[in-house]
Structure to design on (226 residues):
């Protein structure tokens, strides 16, 4: 698609970033070439926070958070069948959900748990600060990668409802099918390392990969937990 910008030298390669910070710095150098002077970086916690923080070396936009969360499969918390945002929008991976044979009550239970996690993290990360006004502003939504893409779709839906001037997505790595789907929803998508091969894992773009804690996010933001 015409609105996808990648690094052709990184196409289909693995383990090409040292860590999220190094990936964010490389991403920022590319993004700044087409970036307006005013805007807002919106990082998706947890993995998007160090990426966006490193992008600020090259893009002097303020950084804030856009809280979304995957809806976990009950017996596999590492995997999800969809995502929820701060407005409570639910975006499900319908083929996967149908294959799981969950009851309606089980689905609702998982959604409720996800909403509780979002509420807890909102209090932890934002305190009493409201979500910033993005009406008529350029925004860049940042994460550490695009796998299924449902978390990013939930973030885009939340942002679009607030009428920004433009929505750009910036990620270091992503799978081609998902990149095409996300690009159709936004003005521009940056994904340095697009891969076409399955199985796809965001982690396999990074030499140093680990799960970030809430405290890690607070440390990156330079704030202390209440």
């Amino acid at each position: 698609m015409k609105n996808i910008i990648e690094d052709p030298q990184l196409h289909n390669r693995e383990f090409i970033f040292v860590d999220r910070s190094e990936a964010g710095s490389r991403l920022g150098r590319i993004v700044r070439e087409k970036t307006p002077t005013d805007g807002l970086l919106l990082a998706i916690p947890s993995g998007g926070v160090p990426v966006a923080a490193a992008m600020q070396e090259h893009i002097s936009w303020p950084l804030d958070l856009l809280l979304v969360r995957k809806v976990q499969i009950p017996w596999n918390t590492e995997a999800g069948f969809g995502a929820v945002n701060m407005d409570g929008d639910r975006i499900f991976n319908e083929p996967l959900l149908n294959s799981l044979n969950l009851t309606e009550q089980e689905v609702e239970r998982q959604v409720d748990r996800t909403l509780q996690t979002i509420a807890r993290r909102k209090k932890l990360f934002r305190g009493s600060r409201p979500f910033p006004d993005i009406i008529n502003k350029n925004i860049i939504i940042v994460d550490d990668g695009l796998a299924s893409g449902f978390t990013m779709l939930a973030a885009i839906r939340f942002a679009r409802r607030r009428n920004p001037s433009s929505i750009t997505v910036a990620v270091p790595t992503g799978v081609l099918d998902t990149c095409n789907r996300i690009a159709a929803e936004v003005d521009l998508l940056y994904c340095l390392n697009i891969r076409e091969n399955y199985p796809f894992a965001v982690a396999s773009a990074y030499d140093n990969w680990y799960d970030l804690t809430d405290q890690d996010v607070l440390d990156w933001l330079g704030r202390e937990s209440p």
